[in-house]
Amino acid sequence: METNELMKKAVKFHGHTCPGVALGVLVSKYILEHGNDFSIDEELVAVVENDNCSVDAIQALLGTTFGKGNFIHLDYGKNNYTFYNRTNKKAVKLSLKSSSFGNHNLSKNERIEGLLKSKPEDIFKIREVEFNPPEKAQIHNSINCENCGDATMAIKIQEYEGKKLCIPCYEKIKKITI
Ligand SMILES: [Zn+2]
Ligand SMILES: [Zn+2]
Q1: How many whole angstroms from 140 Cα to the centroid of ligand 2?
Q2: Structure confidence by residue, pLDDT tens digits, 123-151
Q3: Which of 26, 74, 117, 169 has the lowest CB atom count within 10 Å?
Q4: How many angstroms separate the alpha carbon of residue 117 from the centre of ligand 1?
Q5: How many independent structural domains does the chain possess?
Q6: Residue 168's domain is classified under what CATH number?
């Protein structure tokens, strides 16, 4: 698919046109162009290190989504994107070159256009990496929170003064008692 076609599809999902989504389009384009190594199915895992507009393009174009558990967000505030293929165990990491996104003298439209004309290789440092795969999404037992009663995944339950609590209740009760 041409970059502009990918952009259209990503913008439809994301809701507006912006440089961030263009960046995510270029990330996705690289993976789509390397279909031998990275097929677009459940075996592909994306790890993103930011939660800006770019990650919507990746969810829309590569089918790696939060709900399927093959989309992992690390809150590092970096424009790094790692993709792992569970089948052949290959992993590739794309990191934005610092010069690529920072020219704020250009208008928003000029920045979008400039990005869409670029090749992924122009704006990202791209390298194969070692990667420890996350486990596939698991079904965990649920326990009812002793404060609000919500069924909560057992591994998320916090114990406080002998009570089993969900995270928001734990944080609320801890704040009151301290
Ligand atoms: Zn946006
Ligand atoms: Zn609760």
Answers
A1: 17
A2: 999 999 998 766 665 667 889 999 999 99
A3: 117
A4: 18
A5: 2
A6: 3.30.60
Shared domain for 156 and 104, answered yes or no, is no
Tell me the CA–centroid distance for residue 71 and ligand 2, in Å. 27
Q: What is the pTM of this model?
A: 0.79
Q: Please name the helix (run of DSSP H) or strand (run of DSSP E) that holds residue 1, with its range, or none.
A: none
Do 120 and 58 reside in the same domain of the chain?
yes
pLDDT > 80? residue 178: no
Helical pair 3-14 and 54-62, crossing angle rounded to 10 deg? 110
DSSP 48-89: ES--STHHHHHHHHH---TTTT-EEE--S---EEEEEETTT-
pLDDT tens readout for residues 64-78 = 998 888 999 988 999
Tell me how far the alpha carbon of residue 77 lies from the centroid of ligand 2, in angstroms.
30
Q: How far is the CA of 54 from the centre of ligand 1 (A)?
A: 7
- Do 89 and 152 fall into the same domain? no
Domain residues for the domain of 15 are 3-128
Say yes or no: 38 and 89 in one domain.
yes
133 located within any domain: no
* Same-domain pairing of 57 and 119: yes
